[in-house]
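To close the chapter, one final illustration. This time we ask the reader to focus less on the individual chains and more on the assembly as a whole: which components sit near each other, and how the overall shape emerges from the parts.
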Amino acid sequence: MKLIDANACIGSDFVKHPIVNHESFIVMENVKTAETPAELISVMDKFEIQQAAVWHRAMFDYDPIKGNEVLTEAIRGYEDRMLPVWTILPAISDTEFAPDTFFDKMKKNGVKMLKAFPLQNRYILCDVTMGDQLKAMEELQIPLYLEPQPDYQYIYDVLKEFPNLTVILNNIGIWPSARLIYPLLKRYPNVYLETGDTGLTHAYEEICQKFGSHRLLYGSNFPSNSPGCSLNCLLKAKISDEERENIAHRNMERLLGEVKL
Amino acid sequence: MINWNLDYKMIDIHTHMGPEYPIYYPEHDADSMVRYMDECGVELIVSAPCEDLFVTGSVRRDITTAMRTYPDRIKGYFAFNPNTGATVQEMEKAFAENPGYVGLKFLPDYHRTNITDPSYADALAFANERKLIVLSHTWGLSMNAEQCNSAEKIRQIVETYPDLKFIMGHSIQGQSDIAIKIAKDYENAYLDLCDTGRFNGIIEKMVAAVGAQKVLYATDAPMQGYRFIQGAVLAADITDAEKKLIFRDNALRLLNMEDK
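The assembled structure is written out below.
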């Protein structure tokens, strides 16, 4: 079965690695990171993962602009295995992200997906702050990775303003509550769940039954997690082969195919 | 090539039962837990139901019923809440009436009481005298920004009570490097993979530092499925013999069931 990991990270940790624990707060731990693309490739090969959506620690720990550059430089030559994910900032302050130039830059660099860390980068992800950018992302169908830090409220809010935004929920902690995730999956057909932290009893079965297998993207959340965690769950879930293939790679391939850059 | 399947059954040393406030997980009673154990290759669990941990007063209906219904599949922890307490006589009676009890369960962070507080002393002495297992929740820093079960307190407990078998639930998450040191320094201290076992590379680090005989498969089921941490162990760069120690043999030794 082909596997595309929807959420992997390269780069060493600035101090320790911030991990969302099971009570949804951050703990700092030493984990084994992949400092270079070659190191990540060796992890991917071990788990027979063909491609991975990859971001770089520098985007979070240092600076999104510099971090995007670090990622682009680092993965040059690995484009067949690594799908780059950049981080976005509000263009009202950081003009490099203005829609008339930034999306062209993404295209030139083969970038089709974005992350936003509004808590870390101190802004509010909303129409007031960056409406033009979010509107353009809706129209271009660019997937946006969002993690519920400090909580889900901002995700609910931005989707209320931009209901057609393609959102990939990720790094949700290993006690992810359906009370917070299911309403988003029900209301917004363009919201997806990356499975790196998903290990609840029969979670795959229930989500496939309630919302369809096309709403899950296999991911490892590496290096917070060993890729073995979510992969063991996916391989053994009581779902059809068709559903498993959707989660393993087809959904990500479809999302990337829909990007209009 | 990773071998995703085992030819033996696993033992989960850290589970619960029943609902708990933060999350939705509909399959939480003993019957559904045993069904899911069958699905996931788990032979035996040791459980501390949420009603015993979070309901004021001594309830203990779920665990006593479960241990009677599934004596070969479910063992129990006597959940000790220092705020409501349990006398030595009550614990003696409960253990005499319910042979499935194998130890005590502490939740210092949630009960917002330091594990070194005198309110735990009788329970610790009870466990020490009988060489019981004590499974305690351990975190470096809790969700309340307290340190009720952080590393320096755990070190004090395992040193003061050398005859009990102390399982560091979550391996003092946030201070796991110190937990590994404690497991190395104290014969009666054990590392628990619940949640913490998913961290990339940590199982290899634990095994290299203290040996697989001090590392225990643990999940928090039913709040978490059995397979997530299984995947971390199955994929870890350790030997098959070390995996069997983690998944089964260490638990059998702690439970005095080595003949099984």
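The two ends of chain B are 30 Å apart (CA to CA). Chain B has a mean pLDDT of 96. With these observations in hand, you are ready for the problems at the end of the chapter.
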